[in-house]
Amino acid sequence: MKAPPPPQQTNIPLDGKSDPSHKHRHVLPPASHAVVLQLVTGRWWGGTAFGGYKSRSEVPKLVEQSMSGDLPIDQYITHRFQGVEQINDAIDALHSGDCLRAVVSY
Predict the structure, then answer these.
(1) Is 82 helix (H, G, I), strand (E, B) or coil?
(2) pLDDT tens track of the chain, all 106 residues?
(3) Which residues contact 14 (CB under 8 A, 6 or more apart)?
(4) Whole-angstrom Cα distance, residue 4 to residue 64?
(5) Closest CA relative to residue 104, chosen from 76, 84, 77, 75
C-alpha cells in the first residue's frame, strides 16, 4: 500500500502583503492554520511552569524534602562546575543534550 502524499502547504501571508509575488512572505503550514484560527476565534491555551507546582507554597516543601533526604535530587545532577567563569561551559553542557542538570558553585 502506498503512503499518502504529504499535505500541501497553503500560503497565508503573515506580513500583511497581499501580493502573491512578494518574495519575503511568511507562511504557515496547514496544521498551524487551525492553531491560529482557534486563537483568533477566542480560544485560549494554558500551560504550567514547574510542572504545575505553585512556586511560593509548594517549592519550599520540595526543598525541605530534599534537605531531609526524602527527595534524592543529587542523582539528577549530571554535571558540576566550579566558579562563575564556568557558567558558559554549564550552558554548553545543557545544550549538548547529555547533561540533565548542571550545578554551578561559586
Answers:
(1) strand
(2) 565 555 554 444 544 455 555 454 445 555 566 666 666 777 766 766 657 777 788 889 989 999 999 999 889 999 999 999 999 999 999 999 889 999 999 8
(3) 25, 26, 27, 28
(4) 54
(5) 84
